[in-house]
Inverse folding.
């Protein structure tokens, strides 16, 4: 296997361009690439579209911020596509004040949109959201007399994902529930940058234990310890 380039978080952030759609792994910051997120915060790249399960956590009273909430606080997103913003008061404020467009998507639908993007599909049919606000503006298709919504696939310009262990070829292993959206997002972007807590030699990982094969990964970043 050919080794993948190991770059700094700053170099990784520089690969995200203004206007990009960025897929960010994690579930309320569990499994989020926090080292790259901090570098992207410093870079102040803006006009981005975020695709993430949520927008991290931000308590305006205590100032506590986690995950992609650091980027929300810097107003680096023009649009957020997520399932849950209930623990980020700044996202809520920006949405209510019309500063950022927020598209709320049922979690299963969001996961399948990303999976469909990675699988090369145009979209899929789901009954989730039929008869609710989720249906607005979408095509309803009847199958055996039952209504389904046509949901379109989602892809990104860049995916920023987080692994527990990577080998130098880019094979990845995730840690327990930190796996969440990361494997799906690794398949659904033009450029995939994986942050890993540990980077080992090629051949050190059990092939049966690998969650994301190296073919999906373009660059590796060594995670810095959480502060």
């Amino acid at each position: 296997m050919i080794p993948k380039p190991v770059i700094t978080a700053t170099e990784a952030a520089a690969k995200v361009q203004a206007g990009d759609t960025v897929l960010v792994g994690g579930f309320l910051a569990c499994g989020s690439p926090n080292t790259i997120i901090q570098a992207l915060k410093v870079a102040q790249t803006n006009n981005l579209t975020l695709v993430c399960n949520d927008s991290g956590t931000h308590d305006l009273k205590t100032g506590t911020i986690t995950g992609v909430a650091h980027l929300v606080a810097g107003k680096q997103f023009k649009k957020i596509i997520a399932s849950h913003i209930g623990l980020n008061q700044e996202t809520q404020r920006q949405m209510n004040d019309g500063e950022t467009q927020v598209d709320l998507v049922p979690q299963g639908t969001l996961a399948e949109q990303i999976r469909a993007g990675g699988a090369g599909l145009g979209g899929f049919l789901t009954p989730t959201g039929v008869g609710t606000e989720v249906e607005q503006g979408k095509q309803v298709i009847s199958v055996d007399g039952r209504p389904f919504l046509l949901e379109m696939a989602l892809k990104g310009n860049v995916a920023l994902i987080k692994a527990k262990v990577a080998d130098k070829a880019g094979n990845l292993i995730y840690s327990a529930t930190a796996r969440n959206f990361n494997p799906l997002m690794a398949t659904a972007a033009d450029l995939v940058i994986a942050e890993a807590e540990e980077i080992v030699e090629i051949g050190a990982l059990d092939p049966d234990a690998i969650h994301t094969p190296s073919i999906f990964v373009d660059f590796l970043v060594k995670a810095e310890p959480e502060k």
Observations:
- The mean pLDDT is 97.
